[in-house]
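Write out this protein's structure.
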Amino acid sequence: MEDKQYLEEADRKFIWHPFTQMKEWEQAQPVIIEEGRGCHLRDIHGKWYLDGVSSLWVNIHGHRKKEIDDAIKAQLEKIAHTTMLGLSNVPAIQLAERLVNLIYSSFIPHPSSLSHVFYSDNGSTSVEVSLKMAFQYWRHRGYEGKTSFLCLDNAYHGDTLGAVSVGGVDIFHKTFGPLLLKTFRAPSPYCYRCEFGMSCPECGMACLGKMEEILMNHHHEIAAVILEPLVQAAGGMIISPSGYLRGVRDLCSRYNVLMIADEVATGFGRTGKMFASEHEGIVPDMLCLSKGITGGYLPLAVTVTNNEIYNAFLGEFRDLKTFFHGHSYTGNPLACAAALACLDIFEREKTVYNMRQATEVLEAWLKDIAVLPHVGDIRSKGLMAGVELVRDKSSKEPFAWEEKIGWRVADYARDHGVLIRPLGNVIVIMPPLSIKIEELKQMLNVLRSAMEEI
């Protein structure tokens, strides 16, 4: 039996893939990746593909980036892992200082007060940390009634139970309803499918008004508002209107609730600034980061908090104010070394500045395809974009889920050398920030052909 055939059969036999209907997978021809180089991936049959989804939004500078490879190798010659429970390690200290300084400088002229880094290992856990911290913070402050959270429709914050509790994508989350925390949900700033049937800006941001109504009536129960700044990514690349994020920050301050910014997807340059919160000059009370933090090399996440939250956990041993939370691989030295190298590349290659041309190409392409008969809405911020396909453009009638329109477009693109992963009927475009203009144009040409053909 050939090795390739063996791998395909062993995959079907032994692996349960995430977010995958395995009955269909068992009947399909799997794409098994063996190698990566730059913005391309090669499968076991030798076919190369453009990585149009940045290996699920984590790859920033391309695959096999020498500086990150070398940093991991150098750290491996020292130590691969040691616990941070009662110990520390050099790369974790260096990265924490680097992140705090980066966040501080990114928010000038409104400097950030975010000053303490708590490590975990993926976006879901960074959110879990923020929820537990917020809950315990208010207990230490004597507000024992603040036990719930306010989140948004169409939100996605991860797949662990706390993160699912503050999610709002029913197809992902509804099944687990009986297991979840109590939350309040405000309308999503989804202008194309406004829950109030209104248009922006004439609506006066009715969605924000509804959030204020919830806070006015329940702020004594709510520990924090959690949201994805500017872009609800897994919800369908939903872009909030200008001023919405600033409005949320003002409401949190007015009603004495914490603001948690989940920048797992939007952080590290994706929106055209290092952090999406910069676009409206707001500083959250907690900042959740992961995905691109290591350039897509190793699992790592952080929850960054301000001094006020950190200080609430200080006390004598007997006070039991300790934050009783941690992970086996917290602050992993290899991952921290990769993250430091990733940040070095951002500085040296001026990644955020140099992605402007690619952003302009993408925005021009989106305007061009907006006239296609089944393109209902185009949405983008930086190099994060979504194209929502609809059955009827005038009524905005969506394609039925079971028609798999998004997946049929993705299958066509894969056959033509581009790997993407849709969100239902939304075609997601999220390549590495390092993508060359000719590579981006190639990808976009394939996607247009796919949408026209399907």
